[in-house]
Amino acid sequence: MAHGLLAQAWTRGLLALLAGGLQALSILIPWTGEPAWWLQLASLVVLVALVARSRHLREAAALGFAFALAWLAGSWWWLFTSLHVYGNLPAPLAVASVLALAGSLALYYAIATALAWRLGVSVQIGGSARPRAVVWRLPLVFAAAWLLAELARGQWLTGFPWGAGGYAHVDGPLVVLAPWVGVYGIGFVAALAAAALAQFLTAPRSSFDPPTADLVRRAPAQGHWLWLPLGALVTLLGALWLAPAGDQALAPQVSQAAPPLRVALLQGNIAQDEKFRPGSGIPLALDWYGRQMVGSSAQLVIAPETAIPLLPRDLPAGYLDEIAEQFRTGHRALMLGIPLGGDREGYTNSVIGLRPRADAYRYDKHHLVPFGEFIPPLFRWFTELMDIPLGDFRRGVLSQPSFQWQGQRLAPNICYEDLFGEQLAARFAIAEEAPTILVNVSNIAWFGDSVAIDQHLQISRMRALELHRPMLRATNTGATAIIDHQGRVTARLPRLTRGVLEGEVEGRRGITAFARWAGAWGLAPLWLLGLVLLAFAGFSERGRGRTPG
After folding, report:
1. What average pLDDT is seen over the chain?
2. Which residues are CB-neighbours of 414 under 8 A, at least 6 positions away?
3. Do residues 375 and 383 make contact, with C-beta atoms less than 8 angstroms apart?
């Protein structure tokens, strides 16, 4: 008997790991470069079904942990490349570091599945709930707990929301919700739909089906209510799928066109292990970027993060002055990624803007990368094991002015800052000063030729959809692209090539619902939603006077 139970526990654990791997795959399928929304839903259905059949709270928590460990490690395995290949961290320690990070963040999801079992499954076993309450309890509790886990991962301890489940839906029917509730709201609806489907599929059909069979035997008339979550799921997905795309769908009619801008986006394709070498990467960057910036006829030229890999004081004499001179007159402007600062005031990862008849513009990166751009407390020993240049920056303020040019307000963000939609939304707090175009400059060369390039592109697409703004992406190795306000990639350079992407971008005005509430309150409304749903479930259980079984 004990041996059989142990075998079942191992089987369920392996299924949770497999489902987590499928969740990682749904964020971006490597051989297509695209997400798979249906696979994300299917993986969550498996997880909820496993949790619903768990015998105790610890088993439910373990299943959530296993699922999240496979999902997170599978989503950003490429951190191994930055740690080992470019950071010179020994391979075993690099593997252990990736797994330790995934494991620590997986604890949020272990707590979520434990809460889902405690408030959504064990109460069904107790059998005191009304039929209608039972069929809705698990979907609502699971979705709320899952939402809180995603929010915690995205915000606590600086946050690392890469691979959030909502990104799998950037081309799915739920994406029309982006300008209303953002990527986390999409993830909540997806979790609700998956849990409703799992509730229906795992509903007991005979007396031997655990754990809710006893409830059905004592309340036969309730079987009819099991169709409610499934019916709601089908209705929701069907309505969203059949809705017209883009501005004609559920997206708010708030944007109006601003004059188009001709742009040139530079992609230097300088390998990370060469980028900061005086005899190779540095002279190549100075020469190639210098020629492209001066020679382009576009109205706006954009060079990626640390395109110039030296502080201004370390550049050849007159280098920046000669470039600036080209943009003091005429009808061209430049946005250039470059490190700034000094020993006294600290160093910043920055973008400077040059335009005719105006002072130089400056944006300093606000959301810094742990270990890469700042050293977390108690972890200096870890950074000393790696060989990573420019490892300790000073952060800029959250809401910085946009770069104004040709009637457009261009809001830069650097590297993974576009993961934090609520922070980009903060720039929309004053409608009259809201950006008309978003600009991301990145250097993903740290992660080699991996899915990180395509994952980051999908992240930028989601930001464009949430805020109804085009996104210009200038990167070192990819994906350099032009994304319109509907999240569509209208032009793109091949990855790992050196070139210039030329095209037009049309800025947009107006404020989406997401930009309005996230700009004012951040993600607090979503936190409140999750907490209220869990509190309601907990108090309703207590109000019935149920004693745990």
Report:
1. 88
2. 305, 337, 349, 350, 351, 363, 365, 440, 441, 442
3. yes
Dihedral angle over CA of 342, 348, 351, 355, nearest 10:
-40
Reported confidence tier of residue 135, pLDDT bands at 50, 70, 90: low
Both tokens assigned to 216: 């059905």
Beta-strand ranges (E) seen in 365-497 are 403-405, 408-414, 437-442, 471-475, 481-483, 489-492
pLDDT in the model for residue 367 = 94
Separation CA 353–CA 27 (nearest Å): 34
- Please say whether the beta carbons of 458 and 35 come within 8 A: yes
Catalytic residue among 59, 415, 422, 541: 415
Using DSSP's 3-state secondary structure scheme, residue 390 falls into coil
Cross-strand pairs, 316: none
The residue type found at 61 is: A
- What distance in Å separates the CA atoms of residue 165 and residue 174, rounded to the nearest whole number? 12
Judged on CB neighbours under 10 Å (0-12, 13-18, 19+), 22 is buried
Tokens read off for 369: 């990368």
List the one residue out of 176, 177, 179 whose CA is nearest residue 513. Answer: 179
Contact 48, 141 (CB under 8 A): no
Encode pLDDT of 437-475 as tens digits: 999 999 999 999 999 999 999 999 999 999 999 999 999
* DSSP assignment of 71-124: HHHHHSTTHHIIIIIIT---HHHHHHHHHHHHHHHHHHHHHHHHHHHHHHTHHH
Q: Which amino acid is at 38?
A: W
| CA gap 187, 147 in Å, rounded | 7
Element (H, E) at 301: strand 300-303
Residue located via tokens 């920046």: 320
Handedness of CA 503, 509, 512, 515 (dihedral sign): positive
Distance CA 444, CA 460 (A): 14
Look at residue 266 in the predicted model and tell me its pLDDT. 98
C-alpha gyration radius of the chain: 25
365 assigned to active site: yes
DSSP 477: S
At residue 332, φ and ψ (nearest 5 deg) are -125, 155
Asked if residues 83 and 89 have their Cβ atoms less than 8 Å apart, the reply is yes
* Ranges assigned E (strand) in 343-475: 346-354, 361-364, 403-405, 408-414, 437-442, 471-475
**Catalytically annotated residue among 59, 150, 305, 466:** 305
Confidence (pLDDT) at 241: 58
Helix (H) or strand (E) holding 521: helix 513-521
Active site residue 415: yes
347-381 pLDDT tens trace: 999 999 999 999 999 999 999 988 778 777 777 77
Instruction: Examine the residue annotation and report whether 275 is marked as an active-site residue of this protein.
Output: no
State yes or no: cis peptide before 211, omega within 30 of 0.
yes
Strand, coil or helix: 259: strand
pLDDT greater than 70 at residue 98: yes
Tokens of 88: 């010179």
